[in-house]
Write a structure and sequence with these properties.
four-stranded parallel β-sheet, alpha/beta, Aldehyde Dehydrogenase, Chain A, domain 1, 2 domains, Aldehyde Dehydrogenase, Chain A, domain 2, globular, homodimer
Chain lengths: ~425, ~425
């Protein structure tokens, strides 16, 4: 049997070779392969669910908690939903080959900046097996070969999914080696993958904070990572307080476990006495726990509030908890955001034009909102179609990342014998 | 006296604080500061040249070679040229604040993708003191604070230049801390800088291969590096051979010491007997040495040719030397390029439409040419104005990098109370 290292090297080389062919495939062929994958996921339901059962049995035996078990579990309905997601990717415009800009230079050279795939994308992910189909579809559509390395606990599910996806893609006309799945679950392998900058053009970590940090710290190639969202909302004295309450409720309660949910509410002292009780009343219906600075605490005592600790500022709660602070000015609010934000999404609620302009000009996060909920930070909501994740990095991509963010460009220059004088 | 580490930390914090103010400055103020810098470089000529004399004396005493001494030397004329380069940057359009795209979403949210500075840029460079003014101007115009760390051999020159630049920038209305120069020349400091990903958003190495590799290997933040240019030119059987000869001469001879000069000539076997002697005749006028594969050697023996070694393929010569190989097809040429290219610039000379289309579609380098010299790969030639360097990376930027490549974007979303359903 081959060693772990051999498996990785062989598959990476195969992916690299396939990536050149994949980069040239027409949209038609890629879409046909995607539809074939979607059909395969449903047609091969039996095998996939049987493999998933093995993972589930092992996970239960090892004492995995309920939430994790639920994330691991596949059934007929979930496979249909995964197939639908693949069809959605098929329906998106193909970013490859787009002319980003083009012009004729004074010497007659015709200069074009053309969108092309990145090459080979490595994906390191945990538990949820749907990442296998999801990211394979996004890579395929953007013309990139992909090397998938999933978590140990989902090995049988991922392996079965990868087999179905590879065969279906090949049936649709895509080189089978364009999608690679690493069977070995040795830990050492992740470190090896992160060193393969000659073979892998980009690494995407999909999973918890620890995994993402490990990848960022050790990768020798660029990393496209979704960052934590420590989201702030500042309510200005001129705000429409009903609107502020509605938005605060939506941003905190509608889906508290995601990165674009509200974490910290900043309220101007001029309106805190009126505004905070309005919001606290709505929030308390959803049992939101408030961690308050001393001034907010004075206003909110008696409701579901307690004193904030230093750790509550700059904390991503991912739960029905919010930090609350009274500030004396827009500047103080923006200072707080600059200090504690993770650069994901921040909002101001105001009717003051100058405050809105200053906030959007000066707050340096991926997404800056006026009078809207931070929950809109999402590829689908922004009209990008499917999404690879939400970047809090500043390089290459910021905010929701769609298919375009899995591409780069090349310059194509057509001449008629020009030489440099 | 403060320790090295303290100097770096203090200056990085100051740069970070200044970067927020700098990001908001109007184009008018930034341009005024740039003009003030240009004037300062000429007005303070005496101090700068005196400081440079100290570096030159030390360098001569330490036995530095002539070419290096010439790169280190500053005089009145060179300072004027540096001042002119700064004025050129002042005249370029400001990338900051540009709306990259904008649209209204179905729910009425107004979505804008707006260009913003990256923040703080660290620059690690060697010998040439003109990098100090050059890169300071590019960073200032793109709204980024900069931390400069030059080579030991140019310490006095760089320090004098930085002093003039900082004071002139401040006189023009830019926060003085937006431009930082590290006085300490301890080696340890580079490693420390590369770990400061909280304070420094991007690192630019400017210098030799070793410096660039060290930075790429050890930086914890993104790196914007200029890569080696191993440039290929393939002459197709249908090529206009006079044009091919003219372009081969220009690409190899016009400036052989730069990255976009030709390194490897690939000629189709159908025309090699006619084409190679034509090119060899022109090249021999400039004393170009040819390192030939066996088939090219057969045709070229007697002229300035010798057998190529394995090391000649995929080698950047930076001199009047070229590798020469006869191939039997476009596919063989493209295979050779895929294997040996550094992804910088490649050209095909052809009158065959299909060959030109395949070459531009399939060769995956930053710049792909038809019937033109690779020497055009240059920010100025591409109409980008000044240039930070030429990227052979695939992430963020490819090919010539201008002011835009020193920026990122943020999403600005203007609403009227929208919440997520």
């Amino acid at each position: 049997m081959k060693s772990t290292s051999d498996e990785l090297k062989t598959k990476a080389q195969a992916a690299k070779a396939a990536s050149r062919e994949l980069a040239r495939l027409s949209t038609e062929v890629k879409n046909r392969a995607l539809v074939s994958i979607a059909e395969g996921l449903v047609a091969k339901e039996k095998q996939i669910i049987a493999a998933n059962r093995r993972d589930m049995d092992e996970a239960k035996a090892s004492g995995m908690d309920k939430a994790m078990l639920d994330r691991l579990m596949l059934n007929s309905e979930r496979l249909k939903s995964m197939a639908n997601d693949v069809r959605t990717v098929a329906a998106l415009p193909d970013p490859v080959g787009e002319t980003i800009e083009a012009r004729t230079l004074p010497n007659g050279l015709r200069l074009e900046r053309r969108r092309v795939p990145l090459g080979v994308i490595g994906v390191i992910f945990e538990s949820r097996p749907n990442v296998t189909s999801d990211i394979s579809a996004l890579c395929l559509k953007s013309g990139n070969a992909v090397i998938l390395r999933g978590g140990k606990e989902a090995l049988h599910s991922n392996s079965a999914l990868a087999k179905v996806i590879r065969e279906a893609a090949a049936a649709g006309g895509v080189p089978i080696d364009a999608i690679q799945f690493i069977e070995s679950t040795e830990r050492q392998l992740v470190s090896e993958m992160l060193k393969m900058k000659q073979a892998i053009d980009l690494i995407i970590p999909r999973g918890g904070e620890k995994l993402v940090a490990l990848v960022i710290e050790n990768a020798t190639m660029p990393v496209l990572a979704s960052g934590a969202g420590i989201c702030h909302m500042y309510i200005d004295p001129t705000a429409d307080l009903k609107m502020a309450t509605r938005i605060a409720y939506n941003a905190k309660v509608q889906r508290p476990t995601v990165c674009n949910a509200l974490d910290c509410l900043l309220v101007h002292s001029d309106i805190a006495n009126r505004c905070l009780p309005m919001i606290a009343k709505e929030w308390s219906k959803a049992k939101v726990e408030m961690h308050c600075d001393p001034r907010a605490m004075k206003i909110l005592k008696g409701v579901n509030a307690r004193r904030a600790t230093a750790a509550d500022w700059g904390r991503e709660f991912l739960a029905l908890v919010a930090a609350v602070k009274v500030v004396d000015s827009l500047d103080e609010a923006m200072e707080h955001i600059a200090r504690y934000s993770s650069g994901h999404s921040e909002a101001i609620i105001t009717e003051d034009y100058s405050a809105a302009k200053r906030f959007t000009d000066e707050v340096n996060s991926a997404c800056v909102y006026v009078n809207a909920s931070t929950r809109f930070t999402d590829g689908g909501q922004f009209g990008l179609g499917a999404e690879v994740g939400i970047s809090t990095q500043k390089f290459h991509a910021r905010g929701p990342m769609g298919l375009k963010e899995l591409t780069t460009y090349k310059w194509v220059i057509l001449g008629s014998g020009q030489v440099r004088p």
